[in-house]
From TrEMBL:
InterPro entries reported for this sequence: CDPK_Ser/Thr_kinases, EF-hand-dom_pair, EF_Hand_1_Ca_BS, EF_hand_dom, Kinase-like_dom_sf, Prot_kinase_dom, Protein_kinase_ATP_BS
Coiled coil stretches, renumbered: none
Pfam families with a match to the protein in the record: EF-hand_7, Pkinase
Keywords noted in UniProt: ATP-binding, Calcium, Kinase, Nucleotide-binding, Repeat, Serine/threonine-protein kinase, Transferase
Name of protein: Predicted protein
Annotated positions binding ATP: 28
CDD domains: EFh, STKc_CAMK
Gene Ontology molecular functions: ATP binding; calcium ion binding; protein serine/threonine kinase activity
Record organism: Micromonas pusilla (strain CCMP1545)
All residue ranges annotated as the Protein kinase domain in the record: 1-266
Length: 500
């Protein structure tokens, strides 16, 4: 169903149940002939590793094409992913679909949301363009999902990168000048927005309709951006303002992805309802909270489940919204067995006003299910929905819960948590000596989540740091998935509206 310079994408069918997936096959060596140099092969392999690492780091975000699994043989790596049947954003743009300004705003919000999620996880995308966003299905209002993270990379706050990469027409000026940070992604979002609204790129060679990269770079660095020609006079001032702020040539003053999501032009009516409290449980933030939780590492998710258990047993009224969360769990658990299965999760969320597919619920459940039993228990549910940052600020009991959780894991009481003790948490008391090599890799990854000094152990200070929440990882960076139909159940407790 697709091919590029790095591999082939096929539609595949799982024999056991007929479910369709996309399988991306990436060769371990470049296609180019003659054989490439050792340096270029190493870069190619780093690109391959990047795509895997980034997709795993982003988790079960509904804004991203989901990675179910990966396989390797002698010649290639195979990525089993969501099958998106609605085609590329670029394809719909070329098909001449007339988007209203509000429709365009919803699409731009999806693109900017992807950038914001990446940045909150320390990831720079580096190839934001319409080709890399797929519609989940063929409906006009289909969700949009990002794909192809081969050029993405990890970045720390304030770090500057120098490798010029991406697609020339969408490159920021500072990328061309080889000195850039995550702000470059916002410029690319601005180019996509401009293209969606006008049907053309902001930098075009009026003489040469097929300019080379050098001419494109010159135009990006020097040419004035046209905000005068049609349709700009017909667009709202808010629309023009945001596109200008994203296409600011100075990365220091350019709007950030997180700030762009709060810009009036990108605040859809449904988003405003959710932010003001409205009718859906937790101010319409359930699906957003589940996605954010899915981006945490396995160790952090597992420890938060322990804290959820302590919170529920010690004082269910201690945390804001906890009573409402427990009520929602009971509503979802239609079988009454104190577990929520994927079909119950989807049916319940749709009943209270969310629009989410069965596949997406299974993806979210895969991250919520830290005990690996195929269901969500009440403690896993609380772990995902509680505003732990607010709880840390407001509850005097929170430090004691954290210390108690640490002591529960530190079985031998020596003041540190080792790999064997992590294995007991993650693999439910499985003997560390009987773990497979893959399971041991999982444990090593868990240790690395918290082990800041590299000694292979987790002390109390590292444990506390692990549980600290990033204040920049805001819920507005995740899809709300509120249904246009609304919900039939109102769990509008005062405590449940938490805007963070």
């Amino acid at each position: 169903i697709g091919a590029g310079s790095y591999g082939i994408v096929r539609k595949v069918t799982r024999r056991s149940d007929g479910k369709k997936f996309a399988l991306k096959t990436i060769r371990k060596a470049p296609w180019r002939q003659p054989p490439t140099s050792r340096t270029s092969v190493q870069y190619y392999h780093s690109k391959l590793r990047n795509e895997l690492e980034v997709m795993r780091k982003i988790g079960s975000s509904l804004s991203i094409v989901y990675l179910y699994d990966s396989f390797e043989d002698g010649d290639a790596v195979h990525l089993l992913m969501d099958l998106c049947t609605g085609g590329e954003l670029l394809g719909r743009m070329r098909a001449g679909i007339n988007y209203s300004e509000r429709d365009a705003a919803e699409l731009v919000r999806s693109v900017v949301r992807t950038a914001a999620q990446c940045h909150s996880r320390g990831i720079i995308f580096r190839d934001i363009k319409p080709d890399n966003f797929l519609f989940d299905n063929e409906a006009l209002d289909s969700p949009l999902k990002a794909t192809d993270f081969g050029l993405a990379g990890l970045i720390t706050p304030g770090e500057k990168l120098t490798r010029r990469c991406g697609t020339p027409s969408y490159m920021a000026p500072e990328v061309i000048n080889r000195n850039y940070g995550e702000e470059a992604d916002v410029w690319s979002c601005g180019v996509v927005a401009y293209q969606l609204l006008t049907g053309r790129l902001p930098f075009v060679d009026k003489v040469n309709q097929r300019p080379n990269a050098k001419e494109v770079f010159r135009a990006i660095l020097e040419d004035q951006i046209d905000f005068v020609a049609d349709p700009w006079p017909r667009l709202s001032p808010e629309c023009v303002d945001l596109v200008r702020k994203m296409l600011d040539r100075d990365p220091e003053t350019r709007i950030t992805a997180r700030a762009a999501l709060l810009h009036p032009w990108l605040l859809a009516p449904t988003s405003e309802e959710a932010l003001s409290g409205a009718t859906q449980p937790i101010g319409g933030q359930v699906v957003a909270r589940l996605q954010r939780f899915s981006t945490y590492g396995l160790l952090k998710r597992s420890v938060l489940r322990l804290l959820g258990d302590q919170l529920r047993k010690d004082d269910p009224n201690a945390g804001p919204g906890v009573e409402g969360f427990l009520e929602l769990f009971q509503l979802l658990d239609t079988s009454g067995d104190d577990l929520v299965e994927p079909d119950e999760l989807q049916a319940g969320l749709m009943r209270v006003g969310y629009d989410i597919t069965q596949d997406e619920c299974e993806q979210l459940l895969d991250s919520l299910d830290t005990t690996n039993d195929g269901c969500i228990d009440v403690d896993e549910f609380l772990a995902a929905l509680v505003d732990w940052e607010a709880l840390e600020r407001s509850s005097e009991a929170y430090p004691s819960w954290v210390k108690e959780a640490f002591n529960m894991l530190d079985k031998d009481g020596n003041g540190t948590i080792d790999a064997g003790e992590v294995a007991e948490l993650v693999f439910m008391n499985e003997d560390d000596g009987k773990l497979t090599s893959e399971a041991k890799k999982v444990i090593a990854a868990c240790i690395s989540e918290a082990d800041t000094d590299g000694d292979g152990l987790i002390d109390l200070d590292e444990f506390i740091t692990l549980l600290q929440m990033d204040p920049t990882d805001r819920l507005d960076a995740y899809e709300l998935r509120l249904s246009k139909r609304g919900g039939s159940v109102d769990l509008s407790a005062d405590e449940t509206v938490l805007v963070d």
